[in-house]
Amino acid sequence: xxxxxxxxHSIPVDEQTGAISVPIYQTSTFVQEAPGVxxxxxxxxxxxxxxxxxxxxVASLENGYAGFAFGSGLAAIDCVIKLLSAGDEILxxxxxYGGTFRLFDKIFKKFGITVNYTDTTDWVNxxxxxxxKTKMVxxxxxxxxxxxxxxxxxxxxxxxxxxxxxxxxNTFASPVLQKPIDFGADIVVHSATKYIAxxxxxxxxxxxxxxxxxxxxxxxxxxxxxxxxGPFDSxxxxxxxxxxxxxxxRISDTALKLAQYLEQHDLVxxxxxxxxxxxxxxxxxxxxQKKFGGIISFSLKQDRLNEALDFVxxxxxxxxxxxxxxxxxxIAHAASMTHKTIPRAIRHQIGVQxxxxxLSVGIEDAExxxxxxxxxxxxVQKNGRLKSFSLKASLAKV
Length: 398
Prior knowledge:
Layout: H1 3-10, H2 49-61, E1 66-70, H3 73-81, E2 89-93, H4 98-107, E3 114-118, H5 123-129, E4 134-140, H6 152-161, E5 165-169, H7 174-177, E6 187-191, E7 205-209, H8 212-225, H9 231-241, H10 244-263, E8 268-272, H11 282-288, E9 295-300, H12 305-312, E10 319-320, E11 330-333, H13 344-349, E12 357-360, H14 366-383, H15 389-397
Parallel strand pairs: 2-3, 2-4, 4-5, 5-6, 10-11
Antiparallel strand pairs: 1-7, 6-7, 8-9, 9-12, 11-12
C-alpha cells in the first residue's frame, strides 16, 4: 500500500456508528460495568478514544511500536527526558531549537541531568563526545534553524554501542518525508503543532517509540504527569494528518524553488536548505528524506542585523510570526524570536547569525512567494538604515 493510501485508511471508521470522521469523545470519565471492569477506558487522562486513535495513527506513520500525544511539543520532550535519572547525561546536537535548549538548561539541569553539545553533522564528533554516562543522544535533523543534517543510522549505531537511546526530533521533516525509526532511532518526537496538524490551529506534541519496554515507561510518565492532549485537539490533529502527504509534497517543491532563488541573490550570504546540492550534508539528506521540507533559513551579506529586521517586516505574503509548518507562509528573525533565549555567543557558535531569517513555506504558489521576497529585498535596499536601534542594542546584551 502506498504512503498516502496508508495514511488515509489508517484513520479508523467508528465501529459503533460508522462515522467516517473519528468522533470527539469529550468526556472526563467512563461508566464501568463493575469495579475495574470497563471497555478499555476509565479516565481520560489515562486514555481517551479520540486520543488513542491519534496515537495509533502516528505510531503507524512513523513505523513505531506505540505513539503518545501530549499538550505541546515541549511536553512531549519533557516526558522523554523523564526517562532519565539524576547523574545521567544527554549528548545533544549543538544547533538546537531554543525551547529544547531552555528545557535542558533551565529545568533539568537543576535535577542533575547534564547535557553536552556537539556538532553531530559529522558522526566522528559523536564518537569523541559520547561517554559511559551518556544515556541519550538527542538529534534534530534537519535542525532548527540552520537546517543541519545528521546521519541517523551512523549515530544510532554509536549510541547503541554505549547503551544509549537515540532520540530524533523529526518535526521539520515530518513522518511523510523521514522515518527515523527505520534508520535506528529508539524514540521520535514531534511538535505536532507544525506539519502534522498543519493548519496553525492547535498546539500538540507526539512521542513515538520502537519497543514495548519504552512504550510501558512513556505511558507511565504520560499518565503520572498528566500532560496529555485533549480530545478536540486530538481530533484536529487527526484531521490535519489526512492531508499531510499532499501538503508536504507541495510545500517541499515550492521551498526548493525559493531556495534556488535565494542562493543566487546578491544580498544573501549563507543559505541553509538540505535540498540544495551546495548543502554540506545534502547526500545524507538524500539518503534519509523523501523530499526536503518547507523550512529555509538564510543570512544577509555582512550579517546585517538592521536589514534583517527591516526585511522580516517588509514581506506581505510571509507573515511575521513564531511557529512554522502551516498552510500559510511565515517568516521569523531567529535571534530576536525563536532563539532569543540562547545567549548571543552560543548562537553565533552554532551558526545562528544576527541576520538569520527563517522562512516557513506554505502552500501558496512559488511565483507569488518569490515576488514577495523580491519586493522585500528592494525595500531593504531603499531603506538603508534600521529605525529600531533599541532592539539592536538588546540583542547585543542577550
